[in-house]
Design goal:
The protein is α+β, with helices and mostly antiparallel strands and about 110 residues long. Helices cover about 35% and strands about 25% of the residues. The strands form 2 sheets. Strands 1-2-3-4 form a 4-stranded antiparallel beta sheet, covered by helices on one side. Strand 6 and strand 7 form a beta hairpin. The longest helix has 14 residues.
Amino acid sequence: KKTSAPDTEEFLAIGSYKFYPKSGLLSHPKETLSLSRKETTLLTLFAHNPNELLLRDRLLKEVWEDEGVITGRSLDMFVSKLRKKLHHDSAVNLVNVHGKGYRLEV
């Protein structure tokens, strides 16, 4: 849905995107997207650790910790959703490091 990012809220720059963790908005000159709570948590972790490998276990623990049963497929699905939402900037990549985790390359 179309929303506009709050002017006063702090944002994290991810390539040509502005990411507003408090309101869960991902803003690009072409569109502004509203992220789910889990997408927001996941992207916040990536945005605070650009170009660093984040281990699957850490991502699962920090994003799904309170839910008891979690599966690695959930993480893959959410990373896939974020990739689609970050498609306007070809310099931004969520890279799968096989058997280890993911890295946000910017």
